[in-house]
Predict the structure.
Amino acid sequence: MHVLPKRNGIQHARRESDSTQVVQNVILAPVRITRLFIAATVLVACTPRPATAPVPKPTIIPHSAWEATPPVGFAADATRRNKAPGDSLSFHDLRVGVLSTRTDSTGAKPVDIAKLKLTLGDKSEERDAREGSAFNWNGYHVAIVAVYGPGELGGGLAAIEIGTIASLPPQIANSDSAGGAAMRLRIRHNITHITLHHEGDAQPLRPDDDVPKKLRALYSWGASDRNWWDVPYHFLLDTKGNIYEGRDYHYMGETNTTYDPSGHFLITAIGNYNKQEATPETLNAIADLMAWAVSEFDVPLDNIKGHYNYADTDCPGKYLRKYLEDGTFRRMVEERLARKKKVGG
Ligand SMILES: [Zn+2]
């Protein structure tokens, strides 16, 4: 919007005849700049920006209050995705294509292998990469975190992590093993979306369930089964409206599907919302958190969605999905933004 008056100014100047151009440039330039400045100021001042009104951060139960061990991993200039054969992952000027995945059963122990095609400028190379291996290629470190076989969660997908060698600690940069959770990279992101999930547990969450114990179980399953450096979500909620801190929201979350979680503020309701209705306490806590995130990161209300909007999944379950689709969460968030705006003037 700010460039509009400037563009008009340039077009206007182009229409002026050459003979008057020099004189006008000398005499009128300061006037024009002042006008532009006023126009830009008015535009900014008149643009309604409800999303920037401060909304209080809801009370959060800190990670340290439920964890058995603190999160691991290293911050780096990196990316990580689950990719299906035929798909590719681009990072800076590198592209890693997954041509195919297969299981090699010729050895004593079957090994899952991803056939990759690496491309950077006019350089290109195909190579077989074993699950759990890592290699360096033209300034990049590529780790094959997992190749999920048939029947496994994420079957057919390859979990690939790429970092610039320059941004990595030496023990990762020099490793030919992808390693487990402790060797994963923390990927900074700018939050642009708010995405609701549910845990999808076999059983609904009951009020007397031990929630910290469930969180510790999620953490250790994520670390051992998925090589995640922390729980996959940024915040996790119970049926009483308690909000538990998950992964540091400055870093990208995780998924078992193929969508790109970078930029997504991940909220999950513990339990199974295909099997249980949300309590008013849970709904209010979700809305409080969403409203805070909208305000804190300037997230457009249209970007409040569910996991199912981005991947082949029914997450966050039909009993939460209905509130995304009938506008309930949007209305609750708008109420919270308006409430704070009135108080703050
Ligand atoms: Zn989900």
The chain is about 30% helix and 25% strand.
